[in-house]
Amino acid sequence: MANLSPLPKLQFFDANGNPLSGGKLYTYAAGTTTPLATYTDSSGATPNANPVILNSRGEASVWLGANNYKFKLSTSTDVEVWTVDDIASYNYEVLQSLAASGGSSLIGFLQSGSGAVSRTVQSKLRDVFNVKDFGAVGNDTNETSVLINALAAASGNILTFEPGKTYRATSSLVVPANTTIELNGSTLKFVTTGATKNLDLRSGAIVRNGKVKNSGSSFAGSGDYQCPIIIGEYGSGIGYNNIILENLTIETACPDGNGIMVTGESYDVSIRNIDFPDSAYMMIPILLHWGGANAPSSGTFHPHNISIENINVGAMTYATASDAGQILVSGCYNVNIKNVDIKDAHTAGLYIYSGDYGFYYANAAIKEAANTGITVKNFCVQTSDKYGCVIRGDAPMAPGVPIYKIPALIENLQILSAVDNGVELKYAQDTKFVNCLVANAANGIVSDTANCQRIYILGGVFRNCTDDGIFLKNNAIDCVVNGAHCYANGYAGMETTATNTRILNCTFGSASESTQDFGVRIGPSSIGDVLENNVCLGATNVAFSLANGTSYGAVSSFINNVGPSASTGTGGLLQVPFAVLGAGNTAKKWMYGTAIPASGTWQVGDTIWNTAPTAGGFIGWVCTTAGTPGTWKTFGAITA
Hints:
Elements: E1 10-11, E2 24-29, E3 52-53, E4 59-60, E5 69-74, E6 80-87, H1 90-99, E7 108-110, E8 118-120, H2 121-125, E9 128-130, E10 139-142, H3 144-153, E11 158-160, E12 166-169, E13 173-175, E14 180-182, E15 187-190, E16 199-201, E17 206-214, E18 229-231, E19 241-252, E20 257-263, E21 267-276, E22 282-289, E23 304-315, E24 327-330, E25 333-344, E26 350-353, H4 364-368, E27 374-381, E28 389-392, E29 409-415, E30 423-426, E31 432-434, E32 437-439, E33 445-447, E34 456-458, E35 461-463, E36 468-472, E37 480-482, E38 485-487, E39 492-496, E40 502-504, E41 507-508, E42 518-522, E43 529-532, E44 535-536, E45 542-546, E46 555-559, E47 577-581, E48 588-593, E49 607-610, E50 618-625, E51 631-637
Parallel strand pairs: 9-11, 10-12, 11-14, 12-15, 13-16, 14-17, 15-17, 16-18, 17-19, 18-20, 19-21, 20-22, 21-23, 22-24, 23-25, 24-26, 25-27, 26-28, 27-29, 28-30, 29-31, 29-32, 30-33, 31-34, 32-35, 33-36, 34-37, 35-38, 36-39, 37-40, 38-41, 39-42, 40-43, 41-44, 42-45, 43-46, 48-49
Antiparallel strand pairs: 1-4, 2-3, 2-5, 5-6, 7-8, 47-48, 49-50, 50-51
């Protein structure tokens, strides 16, 4: 492309159109009479005389600096010909235009790649906003209004902060929908009082790569207040979705405060790579909580499709909170939690709860999803001042106090130390524990209330607990323990006072066992327990202690169980039924033996099959009159 050449020299004329020979060109700063130099060439190194004296052709070389000028043209005798103000070189005018606020709109931009479309640089730069654009300094002074303006302007785009800075706000900041907060290693600090939210996110928001901190005072109200990051409306139940929190440090100086709260009908939320440093104030670092608290009977709303991954929690030593978990899931479904490490938990490291009202007031479709789809993998609690993990299925504030199944899959849970029980089951149903480790607790896993049903403990190690490695009590029903190893506990590797517990393929004690009294202790109130293919490597008392002499319904099957000591202790079952017809202590029991019992309470129809039959002898004995031991008759004569 060719362009018209500019004038190589300036030429001036008199009133008659003749070259202004010897004319004078005075140059001043625009709007003034202050002389301002021009130059002899483009280098700008040698200034012209001022005035510039024109040659015989009325010409001169006049190169302008980066300024605006006023020119006055005079004859050689200083008779003014004209004066023109506000003159600038074309290049300088272009630079001024580009330096102006709208300058970036004058420059084009084309991205590389097929199909790219033309945009202005201004449009491209506005893809990302910076808080500096709105006057934020980041020197830990109050910049609330500046941050509010920046967030509003950046709606739907990216808002960046400057590395290492601290930006203080004294009221809630709402992150608009589809807006990304790129903290770049800076700190967003809230100094708030009372019932005030902090960083309040809307759908599509992303917050990443920095610290969000609450430095406020104590408050009275719900857990969403003064929580560094809040997603959803606890009171109304409104929820937000498609939100990402990643690579963040969360702190609070608010006593009884939470760290991150997701509530209401919020869904598709990803919380990953989050660090919660040691705190004497924080109650619950991550809280997933049902919403609609303003009017629960009009409908409750439940977070779902939540992913929590790569979480590090320091020592949480806030001393007065109750019913807290470092990760608390209350009235939610479809929650995936993995790779969590907790240094020192208050109340519980992991707390899964149906919620105060459960799903009683949820809509019909949500009722069907109650507590489903909850998975936990690689969750470690180094120590806890109470429990390592709590699974709680009741809804104490709902009419009739309903109990909900919690079919959670908990895999590779590690509770290394707990003052109370490692895993506390309260009204828990259908929960599965796979390859878990619980040590140095009162009991490793315990069903501590009635109505615990279908608890599955598959594999895992339960050791060094004060009482039992596993204790299924309070008439827990239809539970399965398969492949567990329980050793070095204070009383029993496993104890039950439950119904229809299946204990299969487990290992109890160790070859050098010095603390565990029993491999397995079946309590007298148990009903129909099954023990098959278990090994006891050592016990200070006996390997398998089975109920007592009057509790013949306690065990329904005892097959292929081996140990170094006798299978029963004092008062335990003298014979173990291999089949039970009916239920409870009135059931008809089939036993193996070599003689009729000498003690114990028996029912009519109880049968002992002879394990040492001889020619001319009998197949077995049957109880014909109930009693202790009752009346027994032979049956099934064998030919001599």
